[in-house]
Automatic annotation (TrEMBL):
One of its GO terms (molecular function) is oxidoreductase activity. Residues 569-598, 603-633 form the 4Fe-4S ferredoxin-type domain. This is 4Fe-4S ferredoxin-type domain-containing protein. PROSITE patterns: 4FE4S_FER_1, 4FE4S_FER_2. Pfam families: PAPS_reduct.
């Protein structure tokens, strides 16, 4: 049973039955009536429906019932409110005239949008024509969801079926699974009434009515948002910038800043995998307001890296560090090393993590920026009311059916969104399909791995496994060991564990240049390298590594020491697969880490001045190869656990930061003494001492 998500923040939405409009307050400012709260699924991040949404609901209705008879009646007279509902793909609750008439959702197995009626929706349809919806008479007193009911006739598989009493009363809803069987989805029982059918509103309403009712409300929340920006701007006295993704939320935050008379520089994180409409929206908006654009661009690094690192997944997000965070970091330290105030369009209702995030924060990849979100507590409804009210020009993709704006093939996308991309941008989708086909062949995955979006997870996951089971291919999808081995640039033949020894045998000899150029990072007590013979010995106080040709032998005394082996593997695979994102360079505290091109044109990460390397490992913790690829592909093979990246012994970025803070505080008293040491020998000794500190 999936664990229920508890949102720390929810948005309450009400409905005025007299004016027949949704409201964000409990009493109607137009007629003064007390409004009824509508039971939205948490967090209640609802919005008004667009024309495209209504068309999608219509198509789902036609598919479900084979006719459009009753559709106009069920769609009601009011504006339509949509709210995201829990589902493994995409599903939205549909509220009309203050009542949920049903949900429309994308069925990944049928590749169709469908419409699932609520009890009220079913009653409305049946009042028009009792034959529109398939019915099955049941005698059981009560059923539970997922119960299977047998009937005396066969109904087409996947068809929606109302479960009714012999009296005609609707008791529940199910789906036919063929052969005279129905699986129960909802059970309403005979007395369960949804809403007060006797007080249904009869007035037609429009977006203009909703805007009019929210005039005072919007004035208040806009004033609060502007005051928030003004106070932070006055307190920081820094360059004001606005992060603009081309989406609706960042557009509203930007407009709030402009309405205060500010002229922020526009920071656009161009990942290189944005849809063309998003790029056009960014450039159009910048030109409209006459602002300066700063692009943190990843260029084509994604398309170069994906053939080496594999398909990014929800649990394997190497793309974020490579295409978004690394370019952002480089841009910020170049343009705003002394800091800046960054206005962001982040909202609490977008995700659980953002719901827990404060309105003011610093991002560890760009700590120079003080990020503020003036619309942190706003819902989609408030955002869109602002857009309509101020006649802004949002990204046209929203009106084509897109819920989110970002990388077009993001693994966090639903299958419904990916299906939409394939139809609206066939050329881009074909380019992505070719990459999926390449990896499907390399990993020996069936065609369903592509068609059903199973590539969106790197390791076994509940939803992926569930879909794979229904397709009868789970053994070809969840075979993670075989998959990870096939992802490697150099095949691992065997991993042998003998007591306190681990031996890794590769298919080819290990190129020891990786160690010669990065050895100071792991700060060994002793080390010996013979690159010609392919032999290396690296030792610390309680563990050691011996490399001979294609073998790595690691000896250790306690569990924590295994992290030394992991660090060596991170240095090795980073040497082989470096993407050139240069996050290591940007995060190097001593400025000694560099990425250079070798004679073959390959990116080679290395310490340019070993005497200045302090062994903080920031270049490892901020590297997409070391921190994502090795942790999610290599360590599972070492520890025989696809969730090895969750291990307790793993050291994280925040722990390194704490070490740095501790070291700075401890060394502050001796700062004058350090400043007196100007010769190179003393400086080298100073950095060696720091390295010892980080190796604790």
């Amino acid at each position: 049973m999936p664990r229920r998500i508890v949102w720390p923040k929810i948005k309450k939405v009400y409905w005025c039955l007299s004016c027949n409009i949704p409201l964000l307050q409990s009493s109607c400012p137009i007629c003064g009536s007390k409004c009824r709260r509508i039971p939205l699924s948490d967090p209640g991040d609802a919005r008004l429906a667009f024309e495209r949404d209504i068309q999608t609901i219509y198509m789902g209705y036609i598919y479900e019932f084979g006719t459009d008879k009753g559709f106009n009646e069920i769609i009601g007279k009011s504006v339509i409110l949509l709210n995201k509902a829990p589902y493994f793909d995409e599903m939205k609750e549909v509220y009309v005239d203050g009542i949920q008439i049903g949900r429309f959702y994308f069925d990944p197995f049928l590749r169709k949008w469908r419409f699932r009626v609520s009890k009220v929706g079913a009653e409305k349809i049946l009042s028009i024509d009792s034959e529109i919806i398939e019915k099955a008479v049941i005698d059981k007193r009560r059923c539970l969801p997922m119960d299977v009911i047998r009937i005396d006739r066969d109904i087409e598989a996947y068809k929606q079926v109302l479960l009714v009493r012999r009296s005609g009363t609707i008791a529940g809803l199910g789906y036919s699974i063929g052969k005279g069987k129905i699986i129960v989805y909802s059970w309403w029982d005979d007395n369960n009434k949804i809403g007060d059918r006797g007080n249904e509103p009869n007035k037609k309403s429009s977006i203009e009515d909703v805007l009019k009712a929210h005039e005072d409300y919007m004035n208040i929340i806009e004033s609060k948002a502007k005051k928030f920006i003004s106070i932070l701007n006055e307190k920081t006295s820094r360059q004001v910038i606005a992060s603009f993704s081309g989406g609706k939320d960042s557009l509203v935050s930007l407009h709030l800043a402009i309405s205060l008379g500010l002229e922020p520089k526009i920071l656009f994180n161009n990942t290189g995998i944005e849809l063309p409409e998003t790029l056009e929206t960014v450039y159009r908006t910048v030109e409209k307001y006459g602002l300066e654009l700063v692009e943190a661009s990843a260029n084509d690094i994604f398309w170069k890296s994906v053939y080496n690192l594999g398909i990014p997944g929800r649990d394997y997000r190497w793309c974020c560090k490579t295409c978004k965070l690394a370019p952002l970091h480089r841009t910020v330290i170049k343009l705003w090393p002394s800091g800046a105030l960054n206005i962001v369009g982040q909202r609490a209702f977008e995700s659980i993590d953002r719901a827990r995030s404060p309105r003011i924060w610093r991002l560890r990849w760009a700590p120079q920026l003080l990020n503020i979100s003036p619309i942190n507590e706003w819902s989609q409804l408030e955002v869109w009311l602002y857009i309509y009210r101020h006649k802004l020009s949002p990204n046209p993709l929203y009106f084509e059916g897109f819920e989110r704006i970002g990388c077009f093939m993001c693994p966090a996308s639903t299958l419904a969104e990916l299906e939409l991309v394939s139809k609206t941008h066939p050329d881009l989708w074909e380019k992505w399909q070719n990459i999926l086909i390449y990896w499907a062949d390399r990993l020996n995955k069936p065609r369903e791995w592509i068609d059903y979006g199973l590539w969106r997870w790197n390791a076994p996951a509940r939803y992926r496994t569930s879909i794979a089971k229904r397709l009868h291919i789970v053994d070809k999808i969840d075979n993670w060991k075989e998959t990870f081995v096939k992802m490697l640039p150099i095949k691992i033949i065997d991993i042998i564990q003998r007591g306190l020894e681990i031996e890794i045998i590769f298919e080819k000899p290990i190129e020891l240049n990786f160690l010669a150029n990065q050895i100071s990072i792991v700060h060994p007590k002793e080390h010996f390298l013979d690159i010609q013979k392919g032999i290396a010995n690296v030792s610390w106080s309680l563990c050691s590594i011996h490399i001979n040709s294609n073998r790595i032998l690691f000896r250790y005394q306690n569990e924590n020491d295994i992290e030394k082996l992991v660090d060596i593997l991170k240095l090795y695979f980073r040497w082989l697969l470096c993407t050139g994102c240069r996050s290591c360079e940007a995060n190097c505290i001593s400025g000694t880490f560099k990425v250079i091109k070798d004679e073959k044109g390959l990116n080679r990460p290395m310490v340019s001045n070993k005497s200045k390397c302090i062994g903080c490992k920031f270049c490892i913790y901020n590297c997409p190869i070391a921190d994502v690829y090795v942790e999610h592909v290599i360590t599972p093979l070492i520890f025989n656990n696809y969730e090895a990246w969750r291990r307790k012994t793993r050291e994280h970025h925040n722990e390194i930061l704490e070490k740095i803070k501790t070291f700075i505080m401890a060394s502050y008293k001796n700062s004058l003494k350090y400043n007196e040491n100007k010769n190179r020998k003393d400086t080298a000794k100073e950095f060696t001492d720091i390295s010892s500190f980080f190796s604790m």
